[in-house]
Design goal:
This protein is 52% helix and 12% strand. By secondary structure, the chain is of the alpha/beta class.
Length: 201
């Protein structure tokens, strides 16, 4: 089983979480991580990235801005059937190819008006309102599209809040609910304070 991330953020916690899950549950899990800059600056062979994207069971994408990486990911995955989760604001090309169970990112992206897309703050306000509604509905009616939309929201939150524990739960959710692994249920996203003092272990 293979999960690939295209990420602009440090992924040491993600790699640790994946390794712990592999060891704890004796899973054959392969984690691939690429940085968009590596793709944009042609530091890595496009065909290698394309092959990893297309052969992955799930792909999670955090690409900020524009560049070759967006085009490569989009072209590689637009005709595929694997899971694709856009981890950033729900607009643009990456949202068009987002698919998680019965949830389609394209339909969500179509609900954001062009004038809203120019103002990220307005988009996030709308997202937060939708997140609250979807999470509540998902708890009351945990089926089909509502459940998958709720899981999309949870995955986005795990990523946005960051940290090894959130990355672990992101992977557990994907593996258990979408990749047929017998694993414990993922916990709710753990939100850290906006400001604080960090002590590296």
């Amino acid at each position: 089983m293979k999960i690939t991330f295209i990420s602009t953020v440090s992924t040491a916690g993600l790699a640790q979480a994946a390794e712990e899950i592999k060891q704890q549950f004796n899973l054959s899990l392969q984690l691939k991580v690429y940085c968009p800059r590596e793709i944009d600056e042609e530091l890595i062979d496009d065909q290698v990235v394309k092959r990893d994207l297309q052969t992955s069971d799930a792909v999670c994408v955090d690409i900020r801005g524009s560049g070759r990486a967006i085009d490569l990911v989009y072209e590689s995955l637009k005709e595929e059937k694997n899971i694709v989760v856009n981890l950033m604001a729900p607009m643009g090309k990456m949202m068009e190819i987002t698919r998680l169970g019965s949830f389609s990112g394209k339909s969500m992206a179509n609900r954001i008006r062009p004038e809203e897309a120019r103002d990220p703050e307005e988009v996030w306000k709308k997202i937060q309102l939708a997140e609250g509604l979807v999470k509540t509905a998902g708890r009351i009616i945990p089926m089909g599209r509502v459940r998958d939309a709720g899981n999309y929201v949870s995955i986005s939150r795990y990523w946005r809040y960051g940290g090894k524990e959130n990355y672990r739960n992101l992977l557990l959710l994907l593996l258990r609910d979408y990749l047929n692994c017998s694993l414990p249920k993922a916990k709710e996203p753990l939100q850290y304070p906006e400001y604080g003092i960090f002590h590296p272990k």
